[in-house]
From TrEMBL:
The chain crosses the membrane at residues 29-51, 89-109, 121-142, 319-340, 361-383, 423-444. InterPro entries: Ig-like_fold, MetI-like, MetI-like_sf, UgpAE/MalFG_permease. Residues 1-18 have a biased composition (Low complexity). It is found in: Cell membrane. Residues 85-443 form the ABC transmembrane type-1 domain. Keywords: Cell membrane, Membrane, Transmembrane, Transmembrane helix, Transport. This is ABC transporter permease subunit. Pfam families: BPD_transp_1, CarboxypepD_reg.
């Protein structure tokens, strides 16, 4: 009886285990149902494009002929692609390092000011601006015309404040009227003159509205006779409003050209120099007897300083990196500031109590303790700069697009921007993916390590 009872009681003991297995199976099915839409999107938007790009990179431009690794070989023979690799390397080395350094410095300094939150908000605001809008903003800021580009306007203003600029960049001598042009852009009298002579130097090419303020008529100065020991003359605008007048002669309504540099040259050497008055008059006193040539130096006619060619071949990549720094500095500062707020204050205070100054505390304690955060910020920015496209495509003008190109823009240009070779473009995309994967794996491992 006992044995029989035992055998009858055995099945109910196994029932809870069966129910648990069924519950776990139902839980997995429910979990899969919830995860399935995400997996479907991940497969459609990530996995399939990656696999398609890898496959497409093995075919020619038409997509019908299998070429194997020929696109990858061609990729490293193309000078434009090599330049894109070089520029991408510059981005990877320069931009993340500068951003991490700026973010660290700003995060430490912001801690010491009263309106820290407002300052962080101000620096973080560019993150809210799209790369398209930021590219347009900096394209205008970098414009070479000082009347449009704010950076060149500032550069020209500083330059002119210290060196000044020519007042008559468009002026030129009238042909056959006593002045000959020099190779250095200067003008000189065709015949020599001596003390006691008066010379009239007429120029054209200056619009009356461009005359300096305070310019006066030159007729009186031209009629004034020189003393025996001086050389006198007048520089004037040989043009009468409304027409009329005689070329090569100072007419009543013609204006003098003030602030014009005039030199007296003898035997190839400048022996005297002066500047014209408001009526264009000038005089050289106490000159030794002999003959002289009167010269208007080329500096009088030098074109105005237009500033820096920010978007020229030499500076276009640093200029675009500058725009990138403006956008992402707030991001680096906020992340590093979050890490800074978790540092043990007692350690910092103990170092100060032991006599360490702020620089020593920053270098020997703050930076080492922030090393994990700095590494994550740096690697995240490395991943981001490898994919940069918008700023390069928008800011760089067409003629220097190739000088500024990076892998992402080169991939687009080869595939859709005129190259129409999607096989080579897919190979560039695969290369970019292979370069990004190590940084992504490193970042994921860092996150997992920090969670443990």
């Amino acid at each position: 009886m006992t044995a029989t009872a035992t055998k009858v009681a055995a099945p109910p003991a196994a029932a809870p285990a069966t129910r648990q297995r069924r519950a776990r199976r139902r839980g997995r099915i429910v979990a899969l149902l919830f995860v399935f839409p995400a997996l479907l999107l991940l497969g459609a938007l990530v996995v399939y494009p990656v696999l398609f790009s890898v496959g497409r990179s093995l075919f020619d431009a038409t997509g019908t002929r299998f070429v194997g690794g020929e696109n990858y070989t061609e990729m490293f023979r193309d000078p434009a692609t090599l330049k894109a690799v070089r520029n991408t390397a510059i981005w990877v080395v320069v931009a993340p390092a500068l951003l991490t350094g700026l973010g660290l410095i700003l995060a430490v300094l912001v801690e010491k000011i009263r309106w820290a939150t407002a300052f962080k908000l101000l620096l973080f605001m560019p993150m809210a601006v799209s790369f398209l809008a930021a590219g347009i903003i900096f394209r205008l800021a970098y414009d070479e015309d000082p009347d449009k580009g704010v950076l060149n306007a500032a550069v020209v203003g500083v330059h002119d404040a210290f060196q000044g600029s020519s007042s008559y960049p468009t002026a030129r001598a009238r042909d056959g009227k006593g002045l000959s042009a020099g190779a250095d852009g200067s003008y000189r009298t065709g015949t020599t003159v001596s003390p006691g002579d008066t010379v009239s130097l007429g120029l054209v090419g200056v619009a009356p509205k461009d005359l300096p303020e305070g310019a006066r008529p030159a007729r009186t100065a031209a009629a004034r006779e020189a003393d025996p020991d001086e050389l006198r003359g007048v520089v004037y605008l040989d043009f009468t409003r409304g027409g009329g007048g005689e070329p090569g002669r100072v007419d009543p309504e013609e204006s003098g050209l003030p602030r014009m540099t005039v030199e007296a040259v003898r035997d190839g050497k400048t022996v005297a120099s002066t500047t014209t008055a408001a009526d264009g008059s000038f005089r050289f006193a106490d000159l030794a007897d002999g003959t002289y040539t009167v010269v208007l130096p080329g500096s009088n006619f030098a074109p105005p300083y237009d500033g820096v060619s920010w978007l020229g071949p030499a500076l276009v990549t640093p200029a675009i990196i500058g725009a990138y720094l403006w956008i992402w500095t707030g991001f680096a500062m906020v992340l590093i500031g979050a890490g800074l707020s978790t540092l043990p204050r007692d350690t910092l205070e103990a170092a100060r109590m032991d006599g360490a100054n702020e620089w020593q505390v920053f270098r020997r304690i703050t930076v080492p303790l922030l090393a994990p955060v700095l590494t994550v910020v740096f690697v995240t920015l490395v991943i981001n700069v490898m994919k940069v496209f918008d700023l390069v495509y928008i800011i760089a003008p067409g003629p220097v697009q190739e000088d500024a190109t990076v892998l992402a823009t080169q991939m687009w240009l080869v595939s859709f921007g005129g190259g129409n070779n999607q096989g080579l473009g897919s190979a560039l995309g695969v290369l970019l993916l292979l370069l990004v994967i190590p940084a992504m794996v490193f970042n994921v491992r860092r996150f997992r390590g920090s969670q443990r």
